[in-house]
Specification:
With about 950 residues, this protein is of the alpha/beta class. The protein has 28 helices and 28 strands. Helix 23 packs antiparallel against helix 24. The radius of gyration is 29 Å and the shape is globular.
């Protein structure tokens, strides 16, 4: 440990009691810590950059984390236990892990406190491992992509073992590299030794991670697997493994979701089971089992539809997909078991379970999280989709506007080099200029990090442009040739054009990096960020570039991302791959991403977003090179994700159960877009409810005839409505409009086939289904008139200012797509409500923001869920937006609409059928 790290640990110890220490307090403690380090190292000079340490600690203590939210089933026979046993349990594994996170990994005290509370929240919803008799718990933990789920379940494992769980099985993805990475993380955070050297902690020399934290006693847990790429639970290992389940020390397995491996594991477990008297199946008794399913939406779900009898009941003997069946058989073979799935994209898990209570005598219950679902908050320093892609002020989810970070660089020169639908034998031509620039940006990033004292940190660049391994190999050759050329030119100079390369780097630095750093420093509270001059970067370019390697990371390549082997000096790598890089695998110090893989499926896009996560001290140096189309889709799924997360929090406040949330998600309009419908059979019947939700047109035709039809339908509605009731901010408002008039408008309006959230036939079907219950019988209709409009249009007797919305689709497209998939303007959604009700809504909005640790709404934007809950179930809101044809070089306005539906406890659902050929054509395959 160097002088700086010693001083940091001492300063952190002095500051531990401080909740939010000021800069002055931090400076004082740092001075004392440095003096303390000097006095303990008498006889030699102690070198500590005090200002750097102050900035690091200032950043550390500015991090905060909100509380998690929980949905649980209070009637499933669970007995609360943690509070009663808390004082009697020796939390040794957990306490050691906390010390490791704070002292070795530099975690903020607020973050470890948050982790303590969250892991307690999960643990107390598992069963007491000492509880007698049979029990089974099924839960799910939902976090953001790359937000620290591994750290969370490592903490959970530590606490579970402290409490008495004897057998821990971690299902770690489908790739050897991901399983190996997960095992290494658990070696460091739980076992405390290198599992490649020993299967149990028997020698000091193998100590790593938590094993190097002095506790005064040795904590022992065994591992049946190791962190080598081939360290899984193979048949050979299973045959030689003589340890029985539950005998002696806690036992860890980290295994792939692979049928052969899971069969090996199941056969090993059943060797230690007793035969059940009635069924003759073997049951392992008295051994509390905890299964952690990492990336639970990948491979674990049962993609085979259940069979139904003539009464519509699920037949017991239905077929299940292989991996799902083996996981369930494993759980079903233990008398005491707990299953916790971790994922950032949980909606596929929930969507496929149209019958959450499916039972099967061989496999037991399906993996639906019927006991609990916990939504993990991300710490304040997390950089996720909202930060990267931004968010317009979102009335639908009560979000303030969030500017996108200035780190995205659109790519438009890749089509010849890497056509979107290329074959596996495609040979790419010359590297596009955008990728050459991305490689140069990576070299500049590595050099700037050296200036900032981060030379020994890992640096990674991601190149994800093709799914075929043969094409990836060609790309790797091209990138390596480009990098080698740059390395040589930086070392020896350019004989043909002296100074040219240096000029290229200088131009990129000054035109791109300098303004980006300035912008981010002014908006992101990270004291570790500081301006770096070209004069500082220039002499370090060769040093930074010479350290960079190019590695292929796919199923056929032998390359591995061996960050562990370079932990002292740091690994600088350009990783080229596809699916192996797109789920679960962490790219340490990822700064530059070049990403072209087209997909429009929610879970695929989110999981491919390896650039989400934590970037302390170098966020301003990060870059994402991708296409305008992918940027638009990420913007859209960011809204969809935020809306469904907010739905979760809303239902948690209302005391809803996982089953009720499952039903809500399965029937939510956003489900038309984000669910893994490609996993369902064609013709699957789904149900839909618009209660407390929004429908809006965000995609339109550029067909003049269809737009003329929609214009005429709108004018016909306005003629039927007659004189408006009132005006507000130029908008014309009609109240007490019959549902029949709204249905007539929707029936005549032709929405775009790809605008799934505004399918007029489904909207009509839904409204008609509510009328018998005396709901949605009266509507407020608002004709939106922009008072700052450039152009106007006369609708019947109303002069209307046209709303201008940018078309984000390519010129050749027949679609008119709105930016961020948003038509609704802030505050339009409460135009039908009284001033008193609006004040009440705004107070509730700010109250909720305060509870979530957020400041009051600066723009008086209401929480849309609260708006809809304050509207009577009898009333709906229809907003009509005439859009300026200038946006698509047309002659007549394009008519868009938004429908806001009230909350209803008795809303009738409507059915629709999944059409897989449509989804394949529109969204492709993950």
């Amino acid at each position: 440990m160097n002088d700086y790290d010693r001083a940091r640990l001492v300063a952190q110890a002095f500051l531990k009691g401080e909740q939010t220490p000021t800069r002055k307090i931090i400076q004082e403690k740092v001075k004392i810590a440095v003096e303390s380090t000097r006095s303990s190292e008498q006889g030699r000079a102690v070198e500590v950059d005090e200002e750097k340490l102050v900035r690091e600690l200032e950043s550390l203590f500015n991090i905060w984390m909100g509380p998690g939210t929980v949905l649980e089933n209070p009637k499933d026979g669970h007995i609360p236990w943690l509070a009663d046993r808390n004082s009697e349990v020796n939390w040794d594994f957990w306490n050691r892990y906390v010390l490791y996170l704070e002292e070795d990994k530099g975690w903020a005290p607020a973050t470890t406190r948050g982790l303590d509370q969250l892991t307690d929240s999960i643990l107390e919803r598992l069963e007491n491992p000492l509880r007698s008799g049979a029990w089974d718990r099924r839960g799910m933990v939902v976090g953001q992509v790359q937000s620290g789920k591994t750290a969370n379940y490592t903490g959970l494992i530590c606490k579970a073992v402290d409490a008495g769980y004897k057998l821990i099985i971690v299902l770690a993805g489908m790739q050897d590299s991901l399983r190996s990475q997960t095992q290494l993380r658990l070696d460091e955070g739980f076992l405390g030794y290198d599992s490649q050297v020993h299967r149990a902690s028997t020698q000091e020399s193998s100590s790593i991670g938590v094993g190097q934290i002095p506790l005064g006693k040795r904590l022992i847990a065994d591992s049946a697997t190791n962190s080598a790429n081939n360290g899984d639970f193979s048949k050979k290992v299973a045959g030689q493994f003589g340890v029985s389940a539950g005998a002696g020390n806690p036992l860890l397995f980290v295994v792939k979701k692979n049928t052969t491996v899971l069969k090996n594991l199941l056969h090993w477990a059943l060797r230690h089971g007793d035969k059940h008297e009635k069924s003759a199946k073997r049951i392992v008794r008295g051994v509390p089992l905890l299964v952690i399913d990492d990336e639970a939406d990948n491979a674990s779900i049962n993609t085979n539809s259940p069979l139904f009898d003539e009464n519509g009941q699920v037949q017991e003997e239905y077929d299940v997909s292989a991996i799902n069946g083996l996981i369930r058989r494993l759980l079903h073979s233990f008398e005491k078991s707990a299953y916790v799935g971790y994922t950032a994209t949980p909606f596929a898990n929930i969507f496929i379970y149209s019958e959450p209570t499916q039972k099967n005598p061989e496999y037991g219950d399906d993996l639906f999280p019927s006991s609990f679902i916990i939504n993990l908050p991300a710490p304040s320093n997390y950089i996720g989709p909202v930060q990267v892609f931004g968010l317009d002020r979102e009335p639908t989810i009560g979000r303030e506007a969030s500017e996108a970070l200035p780190i995205i660089r659109p790519v438009d020169d890749q089509k010849e080099w890497m056509p979107e639908k290329h074959k596996k034998d495609h040979v790419p031509g010359e590297l596009p200029q955008s990728l050459k620039q991305a490689i140069r940006a990576f070299i500049l990033c590595c050099a700037a990090r050296i200036v900032r004292g981060q030379e020994n940190e890992h640096n990674s660049m991601l190149v994800h442009v093709a799914r075929f391994t043969a094409v990836q190999s060609e790309v790797a050759k091209q990138v390596k040739d480009e990098l080698t050329s740059l390395q040589k030119r930086l070392r020896y100079g350019d004989s043909n054009a002296p100074g040219k390369l240096e000029e290229e780097f200088e131009k990129l630095w000054k035109d791109d990096f300098v303004p980006t750093t300035s912008s981010i420093i002014s908006s992101i509270p990270d004291p570790e960020l500081k301006s770096v001059s070209w004069e500082e970067v220039k002499p370090l370019l060769h040093r930074a570039a010479s350290k960079i390697q190019v590695k292929k990371i796919n199923g056929t390549a032998k390359d591995v991302l061996d960050y562990w082997e370079h932990k002292d000096k740091g690994l600088s790598v350009i990783a080229i791959g596809g699916d192996k890089l797109s789920r679960g695998l962490t790219l340490e110090g990822l700064s530059v991403s070049y990403y072209l893989r087209a997909s429009k499926m929610y879970d695929t896009l989110m999981q491919m977003g390896r650039w989400f996560g934590y970037r302390p001290g170098y966020l301003d140096l990060c870059r994402l090179y991708t296409t305008d189309e992918l940027i638009e889709w990420y913007e859209h799924i960011t809204v969809a994700s935020e809306e469904l997360r907010q739905e979760f929090d809303y239902m948690a406040d209302a005391g809803a159960t996982p089953d009720e949330f499952g039903l809500k998600v399965r029937t939510h309009p956003q489900g038309l877009l984000i669910t893994g419908v490609n996993k369902m059979k064609t013709g699957t019947v789904m149900q839909l409810s618009y209660t407390r939700s929004l429908s809006e047109t965000t995609i339109f035709y550029k067909d003049e005839k269809k737009n003329q039809q929609n214009l005429e339908v709108t004018e016909e509605l306005l003629r039927k409505l007659g004189s408006h009731t009132r005006q507000e901010k130029n908008n014309y408002i009609w109240e007490q409009v019959s549902a029949e008039k709204v249905i007539d408008f929707l029936s005549g309006y032709e929405s775009h086939d790809n605008c799934r959230l505004a399918n007029t036939s489904l909207l009509v079907k839904y409204i008609e289904a509510q009328l018998p219950a005396d709901e949605l019988i009266l509507w407020t209709v608002v004709l939106i008139s922009n008072n700052r409009a450039k152009n106007t249009w006369r609708f019947v007797d109303h002069e209307v200012g046209l709303t201008l919305r940018k078309d984000t689709s390519p010129e050749s497209s027949q679609e008119y797509r709105l930016s961020n998939s948003r038509l609704l303007s802030p505050n339009d959604e409460w135009l039908d409500l009284s001033r008193e009700t609006r004040d009440e809504i705004l107070n509730l909005t700010n109250q909720r923001r305060a509870e979530a640790g957020k400041p009051p709404s600066s723009s008086n934007t209401p929480d849309a869920k609260i708006v809809r809950s304050k509207r009577s179930p009898r009333n709906g809101l229809l907003l009509i937006y005439p859009l300026d044809p200038e946006g698509i070089n047309s002659e007549i306005p394009v008519i868009g609409f938004v429908m806001s539906f009230p909350d209803s406890k008795t809303a009738q659902m409507v059915e629709y059928r999944v059409n897989n050929p449509y989804w394949k054509q529109e969204f492709g395959q993950p």
